[in-house]
Write a structure and sequence with these properties.
Blueprint (H helix, E strand, L loop, with lengths): L3 H14 L1 H16 L2 H28 L5 H15 L5 H13 L5 H25 L8 H34 L3 H30 L7 H27 L3 H6 L4 H32 L10 H19 L7 H8 L3 H13 L3 E3 L5 E3 L8 H7 L16 H20 L4 H18 L1
Antiparallel strand pairs: 1-2
Length: 434
């Protein structure tokens, strides 16, 4: 019989495989709380109630404009209703379909109001994702409208294309062996909702935040969110609807609170996927260095000098750097990049242009390393107190601090531009030797 120690020794390598996933979940949980994602989900749920019918009306109208998607339109509509309100009865679906049909009789002013409501939801989603992706500056108004229009048009078209492709697989299954056909049909039936949800989430995660998002990170977040979404539908049906709590309390009106709860938990899943997408590059970078050095003055100065070096080199060719290029220059995760940029901005070393590019705002040939050292709060100074308030040892300490500050000033008197130029000259031969 195997002993406990031997069993533990055999299981330890397997358990170590889950350690990175555990640290990632811990990191996401911390971000989920600090970004107030539950509050954002509640806000999105309320806005969705107002914009649900306009969004569906616009999406289905776009599909109707393409005859090739006529067969897919009904399937997409059914899938949408299943996702918005799984097993909440026919009443809610009938109401929504009636509302959508009624939009056909709107006047021009009514159509504008309908579109404005849909844009309001997209603007709320954009603000939420900007918060999660740590975006501090919104797009210009025209840019926002272009992104919203792209999402409103491309989303339905991609769903139509996916449904048309699934119809092809269904047709292919009919001409295959019966056993193979049944397995292929079941596979398509199970995968289509996940693929469509993942595609929609990926589009949202890539295009809605006002910052570059790598497709592979968005794909991971979207697949996780889509899988959680499908599991959530099963759990929601069993626990919330099957339990009968809302039906017992609200009776015939139970559909309304059930729908509200569903919208809330659905947006929570969507935001979790967005947070996973945003957190992946930070977490991957954090694993490569000791987190205790995040506030180390030497590390802070090193990151700041990396950013200044990139901006100085680019300024010599009359160019500017976008956010992705500065992240690469900082060489760390998004959080560390933000701290370096924020400190340099507050110290007056850099500025952001109207087109969201970063440029130098201070002459690095005049600014010294000591200026940067002081701006980052790394200096040691004598206490600013009156002579009578200080003891003997306090005055001695002040003299030591003053001497230390003078030595720092002498050591760091080199202009930043000269220091970076000298560092580059040292780095180039080393690179060539490699």
């Amino acid at each position: 019989m195997i002993s406990f120690d031997e069993l533990l020794a055999r299981l330890l390598p397997l358990l170590m495989l889950f350690r990175p996933a555990g640290s990632l979940l811990k990191y996401i949980a911390s971000r989920f709380s600090s970004d107030k994602c539950l509050r954002i989900a509640a806000s999105l749920s309320y806005t969705s109630l107002l914009a649900l019918v306009p969004m569906l009306a616009i999406s289905l109208s776009i599909l109707s404009a393409f005859p090739v998607f006529n067969e897919a339109r009904d399937g997409i509509q059914t899938l949408i209703f299943e996702n918005f309100a799984p097993n909440t009865g026919e009443a809610l679906t009938d109401y929504i379909q009636t509302f959508i049909r009624n939009t056909a009789g709107l006047t021009a002013i009514g159509i504008v109001g309908l579109a404005a409501t849909a844009v309001m939801l997209l603007a709320t989603i954009e603000d939420a994702l900007n918060t999660i992706f740590r975006v501090e500056k919104k797009r210009p108004f025209v840019g926002r409208l272009l992104v919203f229009w792209a999402v409103l048009t491309m989303g339905p078209l991609l769903m139509g294309a996916s449904f048309s492709l699934s119809s092809y697989f269904y047709a292919l299954a009919q001409v295959l062996d019966q056993e193979v056909a049944s397995g292929l049909t079941a596979l398509v039936r199970d995968l289509v909702p996940v693929i469509l949800s993942a595609a929609g989430f990926a589009i949202m995660y890539v295009f809605m935040p006002n910052r570059p998002v790598k497709l592979r990170h968005a794909a991971v977040g979207a697949l996780v969110a889509a899988t959680m979404f499908e599991l959530l539908k099963t759990g929601f049906t069993s626990v919330v609807i099957g339990g009968g709590t809302y039906s017992t309390i609200y009776g015939a009106m139970a559909t309304v609170p059930i729908f509200l709860v569903w919208m809330y938990v659905s947006w929570t899943v969507v935001l979790f996927g967005a947070l996973l997408t945003a957190a992946l590059p930070d977490w991957m970078a954090d694993r490569k260095y000791d987190p205790t050095t995040a506030t180390d003055p030497r590390k802070r100065l090193d990151r700041a000098l990396a950013v200044l070096s990139a901006l100085l080199e680019d300024s010599q060719s009359a160019g500017t750097l976008n956010q992705d290029q500065l992240i690469a220059a900082a060489g760390r995760g998004e959080d560390q990049f933000h701290s370096a940029i924020e400190e340099l901005y507050e110290a007056g070393f850099i500025e952001q242009t109207a087109d969201e590019k970063w440029v130098l705002s201070r002459d690095l040939r005049a600014a010294t390393l000591y200026d940067l050292y002081e701006a980052f709060g790394c200096g040691i100074h004598a206490a600013e107190t009156s002579e009578e308030d200080r003891s003997v040892w306090t005055r001695q300490l002040d003299r030591l601090c003053a001497g230390l500050d003078d030595s720092h000033k002498a050591l760091l008197k080199q202009p930043i531009a000269d220091f970076l130029s000298a560092r580059d000259q040292v780095a180039r031969p080393a690179t060539a030797a490699e």
